[in-house]
Amino acid sequence: MYKISSLTFFLLFSTLLAIGQVNSGNRFYISGYILNRDTGSITLSYSDDTQKWIADTVAIHKGKFNFNGKIDKVTVARLTMSLHVRSVDDPNYTEIFLEPQRMQVRVYEGHFKEAQIKGSHSQYLIKQINAKKAPIIMAKSLLNKAFNDIRTLESKQGLTSSYEAKIDSIKKLMLPFDNQLKLIDLAFIKEHPNELVSAYLLGYYIDREPPVSINNYYQALTSPVRNGYYGQQILRALTEKKISAALVGDKAPEFVLSDLKGRPVDLQQFKYKNIVLLDFWASWCGPCRAMNPYLRNINKTYGDRGLAIISISADTDPVAWRKAVLNDKMEAWNNVISTTELLYKYGVTSAPAYILIDMNGLIVGRYDSIGNDPTKGLLNQLNSLVNNKL
Q1: Quick one: which of 307, 339, 334, 335 has its CA closest to 321?
Q2: Whose CA is closest to 21, among 199, 202, 225?
Q3: How far apart are CA 362 and CA 356, in angstroms?
Q4: Domains (range + CATH), the chain
Q5: In 10 A of CB 215, how many CB atoms?
Q6: Distance of alpha carbon 10 from the chain centroid
Q7: What is the mean pLDDT of residues 88-97?
Q8: Of 286-290, 332-336, 371-375, the least confident
Q9: Quick check: 81 and 92 in contact, CB under 8 A?
Q10: Residue 245 binned pLDDT confidence (cut-offs 50, 70, 90)
Q11: What are the residues whose beta carbons fall under 8 Å from the beta carbon of 356, sequence distance 6 or more?
Q12: How do strand 41-47 and strand 363-367 relate by DSSP bridges?
């Protein structure tokens, strides 16, 4: 059974409100053109500078339309063919970033998602992000159709074990695509801490990722972005969730998981004996698999000098997991499959992720890659720990 989460509410509510600040009292002006319609009306819905909800419907004359209004922030608005269009999946629905300046909009009826928008820096950034996502979304489209078809049959005939199995199967196939889309968003947020769009994107993951991970990205944003509307929404959500996942300097959460042969791997057994490197990965994660040769080199260099590697997979298919471990020649160290709870405890939101634990059981480093420069990042920290141990 599926219900509307606070994430969904956040996204819907987000369209009404702003994500940044500019001088109060500024106006936006939109000159628009709808290419395949001469008459009728079009609606722009947004929150104005007094936080009043505005649903402005104007006439289309020879394909042209104009909007203007007051906003005191960069604001996400809804552009629709009518007030009755409310679903984000409607072909005559799209969201645009209003900025207090002159903007141009060109759109086709029935293809609002492909609207061409000029004059908005935030919209330009979103366009770049969407361009990167487009091939992934296209590749995933057949799975989406299959999923929706099964949901339609389920709604007519009721949920059966057969439908449930098919739904679970499709959701597993969707995971690699969803992870790729997430990585694009998180990479943008990490690389653009001063952009208002980063807070907008981060808000999407509030209910999808561990709070500690959201907090890490939030703290890396610049002060103006953190203090903007979306930044404050994220902060309130984090406060409510009372972050409990482990950070650098914290004691590493304990776990006992089964390895390839069903034997228990207990983190506690390595305390005071070994430095531990946790490798969070998955068989379907291309970037993770690309790091495995580096991981083999680390094991070869440090394995007999006090380092214990534990590769923790996010796989839900044990057959695919086992096959990947053997293909990538990872049997020389411990391999286990994670639980959702463990990912939450360690604040792992994307893969690959590497967490370094000292001999006292404290987290001393978190990394998203290995690299090959021994003077930087993970390798530098690891080398220092090993030398201090000897």
Answers
A1: 335
A2: 225
A3: 8
A4: 6-117 (2.60.40), 124-241 (no CATH), 256-389 (3.40.30.10)
A5: 18
A6: 15
A7: 88
A8: 371-375
A9: yes
A10: low
A11: 275, 276, 277, 278, 363, 364, 365, 366, 367, 378, 381, 382, 385
A12: unpaired
d(CA 192, CA 114): 25
pLDDT of residue 351: 82
Structure tokens at 72: 């005191």
CB 341 within 8 Å of CB 314:
no
Per residue in 141-152, is it b (16+ CB within 10 Å) or e — as a string? eeeeebbeebee
- Retrieve residue 314's tokens: 């996010």
DSSP 85: -
Q: Which two tokens stand for residue 40?
A: 């009728």
* Segment 171-184, tens digit of pLDDT: 888 888 888 999 99
Confidence of residue 106 (pLDDT cuts 50, 70, 90): very high
Read off the tokens for 349: 């939101």
Report how far apart, in Å, the C-alpha atoms of 363 and of each of 179, 247, 252, 276, 385 are: 25, 7, 6, 9, 12
Which of helix, strand or coil describes residue 53? strand
Radius of gyration of the chain (CA): 25
If one counts every other C-beta atom within 10 angstroms of the C-beta of residue 231, the result is 24
Residues sharing a CB contact under 8 Å with residue 51, sequence separation 6 or more, in sequence order: 17
List the structure tokens of 13. Answer: 């509510």
Distant-in-sequence, close-in-space partners of 124: CB < 8 Å, separation ≥ 6:
none
- Say how far apart CA 158 and CA 278 lie, in whole Å: 43
> Which of 298, 252, 280, 284 lies closest to 353, judged by CA?
280
Helix, strand, coil percentages (3-state) for the chain, rounded to 5, are 45, 25, 35
Where on the phi/psi map is residue 109: left (φ > 0), alpha (ψ -120 to 50), or beta? beta
The one-letter code for the residue type at 269 is Q
Q: How far is CA 91 from CA 16, 80, 88, 287, 315, in A?
A: 20, 9, 8, 35, 35
